[in-house]
UniProtKB/TrEMBL annotation:
It comes from Roseivivax halotolerans. InterPro entries: Epimerase_deHydtase, NAD(P)-bd_dom_sf, NAD(P)_dehydrat-like. Coiled coil: none annotated. Keywords: Oxidoreductase. This is Dihydroflavonol-4-reductase. One of its GO terms (molecular function) is oxidoreductase activity, acting on the CH-OH group of donors, NAD or NADP as acceptor. Pfam families: Epimerase. Residues 12-248 form the NAD-dependent epimerase/dehydratase domain.
Length: 354
């Protein structure tokens, strides 16, 4: 399938433009000659936008910044004016929070509501692409076994997450459900959602706060030196996720949800992709931690033992065929993604250089 043709005739809005996934989306749009509208909380903070400005300088496209607050109703009106496509990527992805309602649920839910409601008020908007997650499909790997054919599909919704259990997954679930509720109550624009698994790979600049960087930092700083758990996960390259968004935004027939996950794997196996290049210089784990040990130390590691039981040594399985067939994705090799991410993190001082 050919790459989608980006319509650069009208401006394109990207929320969370300074973020990890959004940065690669913005790069593709600028290289295609588009005008990108980037609503951010502090438009005058050049340190936050430096990497985007550098790309814009060398690209035929243009980027414009607007002051906006995700939780403030009507805050996106100026930035969205005249836009034909809206990419809504802004949503917290972190395990470091004090109040899950305030730090996760409210930004995800109310931010989605504010952005999509504004889209319905902006007559030029014809397509809205929301960055959801596989977290809106499942909480635990045991749910893969119960899914149709033993694999998660776009027809499956997360029914197990809550404010008290897997609140991040809950935030993504309620936000995506709200997106579909709003979309189904209007006929001006079409909603398409992208549902990635764990996103890895290099950033285009800065030091992203995405949880995936925290996980890889733990691999590189020796936290798993005595053994990494075989925690079943899906993994996908950030550039493939960005390409999925571009396809969702500009392919005429794109619609619905799209599981965007390149590899069914586990945390230990992911770490082993780094061994050939970095195993002698960094404390990359060399063995898998047995499940009984992970279960034993779970409370000290901030994990519930029930979570360990349902996810460690339990495979993650997801069907990515729709993303390949409808969006034309060709997923990068996991080893390439991990090595390029690790190299990026070394150069940006996530851990000492060997």
């Amino acid at each position: 399938m050919p790459r989608p043709e980006i319509d650069a005739d009208t401006p394109i809005l990207v929320t969370g433009a300074t973020g990890y996934v959004a940065g690669w989306i913005v790069k593709r749009l600028l290289e295609a000659g588009a005008t990108v509208h980037a609503p951010i909380r502090d438009a005058g903070n050049s340190a936050k936008t430096r990497h985007l400005d550098a790309i814009a300088e060398d690209a035929p496209g243009t980027i414009r910044y607007f002051e906006a607050d995700l939780l403030e109703e009507g805050s996106y009106a100026e930035a969205m004016a005249g836009c034909g496509v809206v990419f809504h990527t802004a949503s917290p992805f972190t395990s470091d929070y004090d109040d899950p309602q305030k730090d996760l649920i409210d930004p995800a839910l109310n931010g989605t509501r504010n952005v999509l409601s504004e889209a319905s008020k902006t007559e030029t908007v014809r397509r809205v692409v929301v960055t959801s997650s596989c977290a809106a499909i499942y909480s635990d790997n045991t749910e893969c076994q119960d899914a149709p054919g033993g694999r998660l599909t776009e027809d499956v919704w997360n029914e197990t997450a809550s404010l008290d259990y897997q609140p991040y997954n809950y935030s993504k679930t309620v936000a995506e459900r709200e997106a579909w509720r709003i979309a189904n109550n209007q006929d001006q624009w079409r909603l398409v959602t992208i549902n990635p698994s764990l996103v890895v790979g290099p950033a285009i600049g800065g030091t992203p706060s995405s949880e995936s960087f925290s996980i890889v930092a733990r691999i590189g700083n020796g936290e798993f030196k005595q053994g990494a758990p075989r925690l079943g996960i899906g993994v996908v390259d950030v550039r493939d996720v960005a390409e999925a968004h571009i396809a969702a935004g500009f392919l005429p027939d794109a619609q619905g949800r799209h599981i965007t996950s390149g590899h069914d794997t586990d945390l230990f196996s992911v770490s082993q992709e780094l061994v050939p290049s970095y195993g002698e210089s960094y404390p990359i784990p060399t063995r898998a931690a047995p499940k009984w040990l992970v279960w034993l130390i779970a409370p000290k590691a901030g994990l519930e033992r029930g979570y360990v039981k349902r996810n460690v040594d339990v495979p993650f399985r997801a069907d990515n065929s729709k993303s390949r067939e409808k969006l034309g994705l060709e997923y990068r090799p996991l080893g390439l993604s991990m090595m390029q991410m690790f190299d990026y993190m070394i150069r940006h001082d996530y851990f000492p250089r060997a």
